[in-house]
Amino acid sequence: DASLASVARILAASVEVDGNEIELEFEIARMPEFQNPDKPTYYQFWSPDGSVVAKSPLIGDDALERLEGPVDELVFAEARAPGSRPLRAVGLKFYPRTADSEDDPNRPAPAGLTLTIAVARDATEMLSQLTFLRRLLISAALTVTILSLLIAAVVVRRGLAPLNAIAAEIAAIDQQNLAARIEAARAPCEIVPIKNTLNDLLARIEEAFKRERRFTADVAHELRTPLAGLRSTIEVALARRRDAADYQNALSICLAIVGNMHEMVNNLLMLARLDARQVTLRCDRIRLAELVDSAWRPFAEKAQQRQITFHNDLPGDLTCQSDREHLSIVFRNLLENAAEYANQAGQIRVAAQRTGDSLQLTLSNTGCKLTAGQVSKVFDSFWRADESRSDAAVHSGLGLALVKRIVTALNGDVAAQIDPPGIFKITLTLP
Questions:
Q1: What is d(CA 92, CA 205) in angstroms, rounded to the nearest whole number?
Q2: Residue whose C-alpha is closest to residue 43's, from 64, 61, 72
Q3: What is the pTM of this model?
Q4: Beta strands across the sheet bearing 41-46
Q5: Which residue has the higher pLDDT, 30 or 2?
Q6: Closest CA to 119 of 172, 57, 43
Q7: CB atoms within 10 A of CB 128
């Protein structure tokens, strides 16, 4: 384009108007570039009325396309040469020099006299080069894209290899080998937190399965003992003929055993409902001193026989917002546990204090023989300090476990401790 523009301006500068005649300053047709048929360059002049003033001899009877815009402004375009060769052309509209402009350079050209010139050059080679360049760029782009995809596939595959290894290790773990852990020794540092978290999850799942197995074994054991008692009582009663009093005594024993079993099943059902969050809680204003006195009455006579002293130190006006029915179950279980395990002529005491927006109640009893290690297990289901379970017909080991679940459902907290030695203390924290 720069070459064509240069030729067009040179040709425009060589045109001179003398009167009504248009003359070329030198013989343009003799210039070599306008005579080479292999790499031809064409030109053509038009007068203002559109008639051809001069043109390249190589054009023959054909003509170039007239390209014109504002005066002295180049206009480029694609064109077709004789023989349908592709051309690159430039058009220029200009004011020609006058014959006497050399005597008076400031003298303007005749009014309205403008000429238009078009210069065109064979663009076959240039278009061929552009076509080659286009193909080269497309081929290079496709090659780079394919290589990038291949490299990306390799990189992604290698990058996902640790995850695939972890997935394979997870797939190999079932409920029979929950003790297995994910190794993935060559895992990159970005994967290590995921591996550690999965191992923690497996540890929790393993512990949950162990608790389930222990729970199933404990339930079977707890039910086996009273069932064995029922069977032996009935077998003894049926071994020979007895009078009505003996049968009545045997039935009373069976009824007591069934009552204990019924209480244990109810506790198990409540634990299951609490774990599944299927318990509906109501919020009432509760006078705690009255609730504790009411919960203590069923055990007062038995405690009096053992000379156990009960102290309810809760103020009469102390209240809290909670579920009356479930909080009553909590205090009944705690007081029953205290009355059962307090020593002869011992003491049971209930006290409370406010701490910010919470209420802290403590229930303590003397005569505790538990160790610090045993205290941490008192809220486990079916746990008892007596490993021989000689008191299985009386206690099922679900009371404190039920207390823990209910207090948690009430958005509270419960803890056990020995303070000082010989005194077992339960601390309830309620909102």
A1: 87
A2: 64
A3: 0.53
A4: 52-55, 41-46, 115-122, 86-94, 74-80
A5: 2
A6: 43
A7: 11
